[in-house]
From TrEMBL:
<dbReference type="GO" id="GO:0046306">
    <property type="term" value="P:alkanesulfonate catabolic process"/>
</dbReference>
<dbReference type="GO" id="GO:0008726">
    <property type="term" value="F:alkanesulfonate monooxygenase activity"/>
</dbReference>
<protein>
    <submittedName>
        <fullName>LLM class flavin-dependent oxidoreductase</fullName>
    </submittedName>
</protein>
<keyword id="KW-0560">Oxidoreductase</keyword>
<dbReference type="InterPro" id="IPR019921">
    <property type="entry name" value="Lucif-like_OxRdtase_Rv2161c"/>
</dbReference>
<dbReference type="InterPro" id="IPR011251">
    <property type="entry name" value="Luciferase-like_dom"/>
</dbReference>
<keyword id="KW-0503">Monooxygenase</keyword>
<keyword id="KW-0288">FMN</keyword>
<dbReference type="InterPro" id="IPR050172">
    <property type="entry name" value="SsuD_RutA_monooxygenase"/>
</dbReference>
<dbReference type="InterPro" id="IPR036661">
    <property type="entry name" value="Luciferase-like_sf"/>
</dbReference>
<dbReference type="Pfam" id="PF00296">
    <property type="entry name" value="Bac_luciferase"/>
</dbReference>
<feature type="domain" description="Luciferase-like">
    <location>
        <begin position="1"/>
        <end position="235"/>
    </location>
</feature>
<keyword id="KW-0285">Flavoprotein</keyword>
Amino acid sequence: MKIGVMLPLGGGDGPGGGMPGWQDVRAVAEAADQGGLDSVWIADHFLYRDPEGQVYGMHESWTLLSAVAAVTSRVELGNMVLCASFRDPGLTAKMAATLDEVSGGRLILGVGAGWHDPEYEAFGLPTDHRVGRFEEWLEIVARLIRGETVTYDGTYYTVRDANLDPAPPHRIPILVAGHRPRMMRLTAEWADLWNTAWYGAADLKLEERLETLRQAVELAGRPVGSITPTAGIIVRDPDQPVPDPSPKAIPVQDLPQAVTAYRKLGVEHLIISPEPMTPRTTERIAEAKQQVR
């Protein structure tokens, strides 16, 4: 079972619930890299507006992930998840190939269709046909990073004899996050990994989502086990203050038992959103990982 952590990105993630700076992001990433965790992940948003209307600012995630690649040496690196609406598919594929080179083959390209209307509206992005746009975008990106020369004439995207030069030095795994039928079909067609989030203890909802993956893989005619199931969970360190703790968070001392439960269900990679997002929480997660049998 692999275990990774989300890195701080925006308002609420930093010390005391404020905006994290680069040094805060770096400190958590280095704690994960040095502590024996398997991966680090960064969300992808322009902003988040909560139901009460409060707006939280965000750093640009790919820039941060590139910087993290340069100051770590071992952990896998991924977006949880990159929003297809924010970047052209050709640009995304070029970015992925370059970051895979910088990181020495540690990139997992996590992608999704996007969902948070306020950031779309603030930056003038279309909110219609998000999954239809994502379907075209994903095919172009996947074929490019897998070494094809791509010509594609779609409703939303067009490319002509496009390829990546230089080509990615390693095969870049694609992770897709989603659970509805169309997204599961696309996962089964193009993905190497799949994510469902956010949970506390393993529950019936998780089991149902895992079953949707199994059915999608079977329908696509792919071998059982060809897509790695990953799950996002929330873990809290009770010894550190958290401004707005999640009611579903697992206490870090209970993480070994939770890992065992997720593993029994077939999850192969846990992606933890730590509360708070500090080096100390990350260290405690790494310590808990060592206790898993």
